[in-house]
Design goal:
The complex is a heterodimer of chains A (115) and B (117).
Chain A (H helix, E strand, L loop, with lengths): L2 E4 L3 E5 L4 E3 L1 E4 L6 E6 L5 E7 L5 E3 L5 E5 L4 E6 L8 E8 L8 E3 L3 E6 L1
Chain B lengths: L3 E4 L2 E4 L5 E7 L4 E9 L5 E8 L5 E2 L8 E7 L2 E6 L8 E9 L8 E2 L3 E5 L1
Parallel strand pairs in B: 2-11
Antiparallel strand pairs in B: 1-3, 3-8, 4-5, 4-9, 5-6, 7-8, 9-10, 9-11
Classes of the chains: A mainly beta (115), B mainly beta (117).
Chain lengths: 115, 117
């Protein structure tokens, strides 16, 4: 079975400092992995996705994530946090349920950015 | 491209009434649509998967007679919460996956906040 664990429920950083949101996954096959961001009262937005191509994935707004199979990790990073990055972030892995593959969601990490 | 809309964005209703939420893919054909529920400060919970023209597949623990899903066209799916009660108050999110998408990417609607009094 597939699962995803976001290791931190809450992360707080200062503006201009690096961001690291940790995610570990469990999958019996080569998964697709995603990071989504949810700002208050707004819809979910895809930040980036890994689909068995390059292991270092660059996304929008300066975010990137590296797929490390040996560590079963897909951590999200950004070199310099901006106030507008404050939001809820979800790490997601696909299931292997045939044609109707489902998304398996992590519990989310709330990112606070302090001035 | 790949825009999904939901209507209404929020709704308040009395206990015992039914509420319909629409999910539309605006610029692509969605063979599969998903309905999620999100409680405050929590992750998304998949309620059901619907394929155009066929019955929805509900996740374990989700009452299909309470949460009626219809996916009558390639651009529209509806979720009807029947005989709503205060415990049904939640944030409902739909997503849609287009026919040609081979990486299972789902595009999400902005959500509908339901409050049952």
């Amino acid at each position: 079975a597939q699962s995803v664990t976001q290791l931190d429920s809450h992360v707080s950083v200062s503006e201009g400092t690096p961001v690291l949101l940790r995610c570990n996954y469990s999958s019996s096959y080569s998964p697709s992995l995603f990071w989504y961001v949810q700002h208050p009262n707004k819809g979910l937005q895809l930040l980036l996705k890994y689909t068995s191509a390059a292991t270092l994935v660059k996304g929008i707004n300066g975010f990137e994530a590296e797929f490390k199979k040996s560590e079963t990790s897909f951590h999200l990073t950004k070199p310099s946090a901006h106030m507008s990055d404050a939001a809820e972030y979800f790490c997601v892995v696909t299931s292997n349920a045939g044609n109707n593959r489902k998304l398996i969601w992590g519990l989310g990490t709330s990112l606070a950015v302090n001035p | 491209g790949a825009v999904v809309s939901q209507h209404p964005s929020w709704v308040i209703c009395k206990s015992g009434t039914s509420v319909k939420i629409e999910c539309r893919s605006l610029d692509f054909q969605a063979t599969t649509m998903f309905w999620y529920r999100q409680f405050p400060k929590q992750s998304l919970m998949l309620m059901a998967t619907s394929n155009e023209g066929s019955k929805a597949t509900y996740e374990q623990g989700v009452e299909k007679d309470k949460f009626l899903i219809n996916h009558a066209s390639l651009t529209l799916s509806t979720l009807t919460v029947t005989s709503a009660h205060p415990e049904d108050s939640s944030f409902y999110i739909c997503s849609a996956r287009e026919w040609e998408n081979s990486y299972n990417e789902q595009f999400f609607g902005p959500g509908t906040r339901l409050t049952v009094l």
